[in-house]
């Protein structure tokens, strides 16, 4: 799905989180929102997911105005920073949650839910953990379960908030590859937030560098490396 | 002082220093601390409880039971249970709503709202009762009209329920707020992004996550609702057999030197408290695995 962000601004009381920003995300792209904390990248992601509403501006999904769509209507697969798995539910129930939450007439029967959850567990390469609780999983496993849970609703796009933030370096590298593969096999437009420029540069097709609520530069990783548009970008990608 | 450390005295130089973890106290200190704790517990909790039951049974179990079957005792027990049955659910709902509002949303005056929830803790129950009398008593505008239309609040059940609700209001909210702050909003947000309605997210995500804190809050609230004296004493008018709850009847019987009757009723009240405690322990024991899983995450 093609996403267009049109002059989106957001302020919380007297603090401005986002100055009007515009951005076009081509269908099927893997995009990184890169910036230090307080740059507005998470706010922008949450606006896309419908968890936050912009003070002004519009969001367009495939050319249609989606600004007023509720979080449920957006059908965005959202992976939260600390994964926000439902702690009192098994992995199976976590992944099945979105399917069970559907209105009765579109809710798949139990057998179909089981089939889909099993397939998702295979996709994240953890077929044997369905009966465990989140507290019994490692950080990397939790991240992949959160991803499977987000994919279960057959989302129109995938939004990830610092998906690798809570992991150690080795697992991080492994899961980067995992996300790339899932993106390539599903073809979903994917936006992830990160403050790690290596991660952004290695994984994304398109990198959006943000600072102080503004977009500093948008481009392919190699172009940003070769031609930083502003002194901020130059300094940020060097460190 | 430094000399001592550098050149150990002969007494300790001979044997190797005993190693023990930094957080552990010496044997003597441990024994003293445990003895102090048990002693305090015995004097403040066990002894009074034992005295209540001993006094109740002082002239035999038969007399204690007879005193409990007298109409003023049965009506007091019934009234107390009715008051608890109304005020506890009401406060559970209000408490959840208040904790939800405070922890899941940002708004102006939030600190003020938290203070307001704590108000019943800082105000004397007698003052609260008097405030209700002034507001709903026969001489007030609202009270006069209510009495005229046959629905009196003061010296009647509604007043007792209102006073109990006021006094026990903070318990549920106070238990829930820290738990809900610690859990944050992420799980609810996740439920919403997965297509759940706000109500469904509350029932399937929030409520299971807070159920233990809610249970503690409800039990505390219940214990206080059944035991409340001051506020209820003011609004109830202490009409024997009609508006006298268990604590008030106990006081009246005691003042009339009917010590077996007073202590028998007191024993029932204490037993009700012990029953809720046992219930809580039983639930904790049966769901120990769940509790542990919830904490570890």
TrEMBL record, chain A:
<keyword id="KW-0813">Transport</keyword>
<dbReference type="InterPro" id="IPR003439">
    <property type="entry name" value="ABC_transporter-like_ATP-bd"/>
</dbReference>
<dbReference type="GO" id="GO:0015697">
    <property type="term" value="P:quaternary ammonium group transport"/>
</dbReference>
<dbReference type="InterPro" id="IPR017871">
    <property type="entry name" value="ABC_transporter-like_CS"/>
</dbReference>
<keyword id="KW-0547">Nucleotide-binding</keyword>
<dbReference type="GO" id="GO:0005524">
    <property type="term" value="F:ATP binding"/>
</dbReference>
<keyword id="KW-0764">Sulfate transport</keyword>
<dbReference type="InterPro" id="IPR003593">
    <property type="entry name" value="AAA+_ATPase"/>
</dbReference>
<dbReference type="GO" id="GO:0016887">
    <property type="term" value="F:ATP hydrolysis activity"/>
</dbReference>
<dbReference type="GO" id="GO:0015419">
    <property type="term" value="F:ABC-type sulfate transporter activity"/>
</dbReference>
<feature type="domain" description="ABC transporter">
    <location>
        <begin position="3"/>
        <end position="237"/>
    </location>
</feature>
<dbReference type="InterPro" id="IPR027417">
    <property type="entry name" value="P-loop_NTPase"/>
</dbReference>
<dbReference type="Pfam" id="PF00005">
    <property type="entry name" value="ABC_tran"/>
</dbReference>
<protein>
    <submittedName>
        <fullName>Sulfate ABC transporter, ATPase subunit</fullName>
    </submittedName>
</protein>
<keyword id="KW-1278">Translocase</keyword>
<dbReference type="InterPro" id="IPR050093">
    <property type="entry name" value="ABC_SmlMolc_Importer"/>
</dbReference>
<dbReference type="GO" id="GO:0043190">
    <property type="term" value="C:ATP-binding cassette (ABC) transporter complex"/>
</dbReference>
<keyword id="KW-0067">ATP-binding</keyword>
<dbReference type="InterPro" id="IPR005666">
    <property type="entry name" value="Sulph_transpt1"/>
</dbReference>
TrEMBL record, chain B:
<feature type="transmembrane region" description="Helical">
    <location>
        <begin position="31"/>
        <end position="56"/>
    </location>
</feature>
<comment type="function">
    <text>Part of the ABC transporter complex CysAWTP (TC 3.A.1.6.1) involved in sulfate/thiosulfate import. Probably responsible for the translocation of the substrate across the membrane.</text>
</comment>
<dbReference type="InterPro" id="IPR000515">
    <property type="entry name" value="MetI-like"/>
</dbReference>
<feature type="domain" description="ABC transmembrane type-1">
    <location>
        <begin position="77"/>
        <end position="278"/>
    </location>
</feature>
<keyword id="KW-0812">Transmembrane</keyword>
<dbReference type="InterPro" id="IPR035906">
    <property type="entry name" value="MetI-like_sf"/>
</dbReference>
<feature type="transmembrane region" description="Helical">
    <location>
        <begin position="257"/>
        <end position="279"/>
    </location>
</feature>
<feature type="transmembrane region" description="Helical">
    <location>
        <begin position="112"/>
        <end position="136"/>
    </location>
</feature>
<feature type="transmembrane region" description="Helical">
    <location>
        <begin position="142"/>
        <end position="169"/>
    </location>
</feature>
<dbReference type="Pfam" id="PF00528">
    <property type="entry name" value="BPD_transp_1"/>
</dbReference>
<keyword id="KW-1133">Transmembrane helix</keyword>
<comment type="subunit">
    <text>The complex is composed of two ATP-binding proteins (CysA), two transmembrane proteins (CysT and CysW) and a solute-binding protein (CysP).</text>
</comment>
<dbReference type="InterPro" id="IPR011866">
    <property type="entry name" value="CysW_permease"/>
</dbReference>
<feature type="transmembrane region" description="Helical">
    <location>
        <begin position="76"/>
        <end position="100"/>
    </location>
</feature>
<keyword id="KW-0472">Membrane</keyword>
<feature type="region of interest" description="Disordered">
    <location>
        <begin position="1"/>
        <end position="21"/>
    </location>
</feature>
<feature type="transmembrane region" description="Helical">
    <location>
        <begin position="213"/>
        <end position="236"/>
    </location>
</feature>
<dbReference type="GO" id="GO:0005886">
    <property type="term" value="C:plasma membrane"/>
</dbReference>
<keyword id="KW-0813">Transport</keyword>
<keyword id="KW-0764">Sulfate transport</keyword>
<protein>
    <submittedName>
        <fullName>Sulfate ABC transporter, inner membrane subunit CysW</fullName>
    </submittedName>
</protein>
<dbReference type="InterPro" id="IPR005667">
    <property type="entry name" value="Sulph_transpt2"/>
</dbReference>
